[in-house]
Amino acid sequence: MNKYILIITIPFILAACKQKEITNPDGDMITIMTVAPGHFHAALIQKNMYPLVDSQVYIFAPEGAEVEDYLARIDAFNSRIEDPTKWHNTVYTKEDFFEKMLEQKPGNLVTLAGNNQNKTEYIYECIKGGLNVLSDKPMAIQPADFELLKEAFAIAEEKGLLLYDIMTERFEITTMLQRVFSQQERIFGTLLIGTEAEPAITKESVHHFSKIISGIPLQRPPWFFDVEQEGEAIADVGTHLVDLIQWEAFPGEVIDYKNDISILDSRRWTTDLSKAQFEAVTVLDEYPEYLRKYIENDTLRVIANSSLNYTLKGVHAKISVEWKYRAPDGTGDTHYSIMRGSLSDLIIKQGQKENYKPTLYVKAVDAGHASALEGNIDLYMNETLAEQYPGISMERIETGFWRVNIPNKYRSGHEAHFEQVTQQFLKYMALGKIPKDEVANMIAKYYTTTAAVEKAK
Fold first, then answer.
1. What is the dihedral of CA 289, 295, 301, 303, to 10 degrees?
2. Engineered SS bond to 9: which of 75, 174, 206, 397, CB 3.0-4.6 Å?
3. What is the CATH number of the domain that holds 38?
């Protein structure tokens, strides 16, 4: 009989072993198996309950602080006063955790969010083993991973399985509205082709190593600072930016990675962390041996930043990802984006003037278009946007320049977006398939990011 470590719902404490038989999920119920939850995103998938998802979750992971942190977060969700969750955990923490999961298969959906070094292999083996997979980004960090991921998608299609990654930024309201406005020809016109010096689409993202998640200081695993395990910035956070460019510029279109993408230039650079800063975010007073190659004069030089210039279906695009130690008080991670159209630019800013909240602006390309654009904006607001998004308004700041005012009810926040992505995936599971363009464009996305990593080297 197999032995499983059960969890008493006290943060950071694993209880004694107890024997428990594992059975396959019944009927149409979806039963989650969480594998190696080394990133806090693993817990955010379970911040809420879902219809037809079993409250019993099976966790297969190496023993240690990472799984304890994950379980503490689940316990916090279960014990919160408002709308507590009701997850029940069965945990296996021996060295053969992954092999045991494949052998037992107590569930039908694997969730992955952790160390990225072996993630593509986990995905491949899960799909080959007949399991659906919902994976945190990235699903591939190196060109070799990309080739294996392609095979996983091919097997998933053969077996009728679902493989999907968690793209939370599609549910951020200013990005959603930027996409909506870009499809209004009388406001945006048509997307420009752009140049390498002035791309038609630019997306820039700034993140921070030190932050608070669900009211708990985030403890980073030390491998997070090793690009061989976490992935370079372009392959990690960059997946969101590449995804948004595809999703906004070519909605519903299939992207052929072999013919539609051209990598022009890719670069990377470091963020330096003192030993004290490293200790503050990892709770380790020494650097692990695998980080030694990044250390100079006791300073950890993390290859944390990347930029990429490329073309997508002939359109010039640029992304940039930067990591800093900690955001100033009252601020957080920031996002900048611009889509250039023949009539107007759609700009998202998140700086001091915006009180560090993402804010969408519409700016006429020149004075000649400003007056015509004003009439078209008023018409669109009255006829369409006010009905789709009640409460949203547009405020003219100056001639040819508007700010989109967004009520707080639409700003659900990064953590809530995990529920929205999961709900979308569950709809796909109910249908038994993922749309063709989604699958092709996931493949195109990971080609772009992994090819950019190779180019930067």
1. -50
2. 75
3. 3.40.50.720
